[in-house]
Amino acid sequence: MTRYRMLAIDLDDTLLNSRLQISPRTKEAIRRARDAGVHVTLATGRMYRSALPYARELELNLPLITYQGALIKEVATEEVLLHRPLPLELAREAVALASSQGHHVNVYLDDNLYVGKLTPEAEKYRKISGVPIYPVGDLVKLLDKRGVAPTKVLVVGEETAMDELGEQMLDRFGKTLHICKSKPHFLELSHPEATKGHALDTLARRWDLTRDQVIAVGDSYNDLEMIEYAGLGVVMGNACPDIKAKADYITQSNEQDGVAEVIAKFIFED
After folding, report:
1. Domain positions in the chain
2. How confident is the model over 125-151, as pLDDT tens digits?
């Protein structure tokens, strides 16, 4: 049996194929790893409620890393093990800046998704995430009224526009928020310590594991911290070249069951 005792897997473009499904081969590989005593969890930018159906499909009863690491929540008991929301005042400023430029903005409060209005971007996001969306008009007013720090803020737009906005956000909030792109058209803003790497470390310590015993599998910029943290950082074959450059190992694509390959090669040494 291999030394690896924990496996953290990103969802979109990693575990899931283009139809947002987990292949039978990958399901069987995860079941085999779980039955062998490996702690298998999901590490995703998605909301907890959006990741939960996939965890149940895989019969995972461990804590899930969600919202890029801002929320770790136990599946079996729904206990919140970690929650690192954005500071409320910084969230207000960031939402106001993105909204003033006409970008679509998602605000996440209490595992619910709020938007200003139902845009095409909102409808596309709803289909991907499988969660309801609540249009509330002015998102800054929502934050003021609720007085609760959001778990995450996501801005959706054309790739070049998100690159430009990302630079503005880094100039303004680079020392106080974690800012990254999870997809070319998704700009994510979260607590500075709300990363998949920090969350992975939290769970590894919970299970008395060292980072050398951890495998992390991902495909995008928001996976870099956990790829760099893990003893074995794996990048999918469908990732872009600069993400692949950070990998200890490059597996097959999400359409070719890359996660199953990793489990066979490194956990069971098949």
Report:
1. 6-83+194-267, 88-190
2. 999 999 999 999 999 999 999 999 999
Q: Distance between CA 30 and CA 264 in Å, rounded?
A: 10
List, for residues 170-212, the tens digit of each pLDDT value: 999 999 999 999 989 999 999 999 999 999 999 999 999 999 9
The pTM score is 0.95
Give me the DSSP letters along the chain.
--S--EEEE-IIIIIS-TTS---HHHHHHHHHHHHTT-EEEEB-SS-HHHHHHHHHHTT--SEEEEGGGTEEEETTT--EEEE-PPPHHHHHHHHHHHHHTT-EEEEEETTEEEESS--HHHHHHHHHH---EEE-S-HHHHHHHH----SEEEEE--HHHHHHHHHHHHHHHTTTSEEEEEETTEEEEE-TT-SHHHHHHHHHHHTT--GGGEEEEE-SGGGHHHHHHSSEEEE-TTS-HHHHTT-SEE---GGGTHHHHHIIIIIS--
CATH superfamily of 6-83+194-267: HAD superfamily/HAD-like (3.40.50.1000)
For domain 88-190, is the CATH number 3.30.1240.10?
Answer: yes
